[in-house]
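Consider the tokenized backbone below.
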């Protein structure tokens, strides 16, 4: 059993075939959730699953579960998967790799006529990216009860089309109640979407956890005035005060390494005129870290600094937390299965805490879960030039195969 390996060329060919659906001129993929292209991608993956002898179940939010039966069908399945919807300027591997790696595991077990004790399933979740409908990670979020099916159905895109209507239109509004589908353990294989593995020269990232994040909107209110006649000492410059807070966001993150993150990614300046002192600035704040304790400390320090800056400058500064995802530690048994498989196969490895959200975060609320990372070129993702080496993708899939077999067991 230690010699078991997947067919890397077959995995790569499947990835390239799926990537043709929604292919862009720059070599990426645009396959937004619940569009006609998404339907084509779903149909292709489902057809591959059925060709591999799998039965298919679809729930009411459009999550798809493809099942390879085990010797004991009463056992909850060992599930792997990800998503096949993409960003508007997405790549070939984000999400897609996790789904097709699971399919390749099943194809390999079929080739070698290996029967597992527990069933094995490959899942793909609806609207993980959130680029057409919000919230992100919609399918897995409904599945675990993070928000209701009705809330998801009511979400609309920029053209006013709803999730419920679009699921019905493309034929993927299933009958199974989300969350009623049993999961014994869940694994997700993914490109890292960051530069850590490549920078360290490692092939496999063992993922012990996903960072928590706090998102805020910050509004600084001053007074517009003419840039020429108004002396520096008499200005109420909202932008200059906003930049003081922005710099502190970065300093806070740097105080809590190695996983502290602080980002200002969106800035709106009013009136945004060359010769007018800005009277109002609205900007985003993104804080991340690996534990609730650290993230809460960063939160409190940021609020204290805002209060101090408000007193010192006399300008209005309002901060509203608009989103919060707690840190997600993965189950020790699943992390251990990934680590054991990596060591058995002899791949270079390191632990990598994920800074991005994944469906595994929500799966971890209902079942023991774990993740496997492989490098992506220059750490680039959510971009049409996203790239990964075939041998790295093969290695990650081999780790997935052995980790799943440990959890599913081999029928004797």
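A designed sequence for it:
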């Amino acid at each position: 059993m230690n010699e078991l390996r997947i067919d890397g060329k077959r995995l790569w060919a499947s990835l390239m075939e799926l990537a043709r659906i929604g292919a862009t001129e720059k070599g990426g993929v645009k396959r937004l959730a619940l569009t006609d292209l998404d339907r084509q991608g779903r149909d292709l993956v489902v057809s591959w699953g059925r060709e591999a002898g799998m039965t298919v179940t679809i729930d009411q939010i459009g999550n798809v579960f493809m099942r390879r039966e085990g010797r004991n069908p009463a056992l909850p399945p060992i599930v792997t998967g990800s998503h096949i919807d993409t960003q508007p300027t997405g790549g070939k591997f984000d999400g897609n790799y996790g789904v097709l790696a699971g399919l390749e595991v099943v194809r390999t077990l079929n080739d070698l006529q290996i029967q597992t004790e527990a069933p094995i399933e490959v899942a793909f979740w609806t609207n993980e990216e959130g680029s057409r409908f919000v919230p992100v990670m919609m399918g897995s979020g409904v599945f675990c009860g993070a928000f209701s099916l009705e809330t998801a159905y009511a979400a609309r895109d920029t053209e006013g089309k709803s999730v419920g209507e679009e699921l019905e239109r493309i034929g993927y509004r299933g009958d199974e109640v989300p969350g009623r589908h049993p999961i014994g353990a869940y694994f997700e294989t993914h490109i890292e979407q960051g530069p850590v593995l490549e920078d360290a020269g490692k092939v496999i990232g063992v993922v012990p956890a996903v960072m928590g994040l706090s998102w805020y909107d910050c509004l600084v209110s001053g007074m517009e005035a003419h840039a020429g006649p108004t002396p520096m000492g008499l200005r109420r410059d909202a932008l200059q005060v906003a930049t003081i807070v922005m710099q502190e966001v970065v300093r806070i993150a740097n105080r809590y390494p190695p996983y502290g993150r602080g980002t200002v990614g969106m800035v709106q300046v009013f009136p945004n005129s060359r010769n007018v002192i800005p009277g109002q600035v609205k900007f985003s704040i993104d804080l991340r870290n690996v534990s609730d304790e650290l993230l809460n400390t960063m939160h409190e320090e940021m609020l204290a600094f805002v209060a101090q800056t408000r007193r010192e400058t006399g300008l209005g500064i309002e901060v509203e937390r608009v989103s919060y995802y707690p840190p997600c530690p993965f189950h020790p048994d699943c992390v251990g299965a990934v680590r054991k498989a990596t060591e058995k196969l002899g791949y270079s490895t390191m632990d990598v805490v994920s800074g991005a959200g994944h469906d595994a975060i929500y799966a971890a609320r209902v079942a023991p879960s774990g993740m496997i990372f492989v490098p992506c070129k220059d750490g680039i993702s959510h971009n049409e030039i996203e790239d990964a080496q075939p041998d790295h993708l093969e290695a990650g899939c081999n780790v997935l195969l052995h980790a799943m077999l440990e959890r599913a067991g081999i029928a004797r």
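The mean pLDDT is 97.
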